[in-house]
Specification:
183 residues
Length: 183
């Protein structure tokens, strides 16, 4: 098991000395870098700007012993580069999914569909089966399903007439149902 790194006072002192040998200047520089990192994260729409800034400083402070002798240039630029990587890593991870709200019952959310369900149940079982099979499937499967139904009913004209009668019955039932519900 890998032991998690925790920053201590010596680590932070080493980091401040890397920022500037004068402790007061180093403290001011630290505050300026912190303020700019937070502003950078916020300007890019990060909701956890302060948390990401702390993460950035943890990473930089952990790395200082390795780079203190070899890094030349402004330490603030190094911090901003690490901050950029923190932001990229954070948003590369898939977001935590929000719990799905419970769906409303049909009759609350979609009265016409609730009426359709009710009216389909009122059809004769054979008409109900024909209507459901007629509208089942997509693309080629739908075409083949309708061809089978047409053969079963005695031709495509018979299927058209049957579906017309079913639609007329459903339309009247749905209109009555919606009137009852005040739609």
């Amino acid at each position: 098991m890998v032991k998690e790194w925790v920053m201590n006072q010596d680590d932070f002192e080493r980091f401040l000395a890397w920022l500037d040998p004068d402790r007061d200047k180093a403290g001011k520089k630290y505050e300026e870098i912190r303020r700019r990192l937070i502003k950078m994260f916020e300007s890019r729409g990060c909701m956890e700007a302060e948390e990401m800034t702390d993460d950035t400083f943890d990473r930089v402070v952990r790395k200082v012993p390795e780079i203190i002798d070899s890094y030349f240039g402004d330490p603030a630029l190094y911090c901003y580069g690490v901050g950029r990587n923190v932001r990229l890593e954070r948003y590369r991870k898939p977001p935590t999914p929000m719990p799905m709200p419970l769906p409303d019952p049909w009759d609350v959310r979609e009265p016409p569909f609730a009426c359709l369900d009710r009216c389909l149940k009122k059809l004769k079982p054979d008409d109900q089966r024909v209507a459901l099979l007629y509208y089942t499937g997509d693309g080629r499967a739908k075409i083949e399903q309708r061809q089978k139904l047409a053969e079963e009913l005695g031709g495509s004209n018979a299927l058209r007439i049957r579906m017309h009668r079913i639609r007329v019955t459903l339309r009247a039932c749905i209109d009555d149902c919606l009137k009852e519900k005040g739609q």
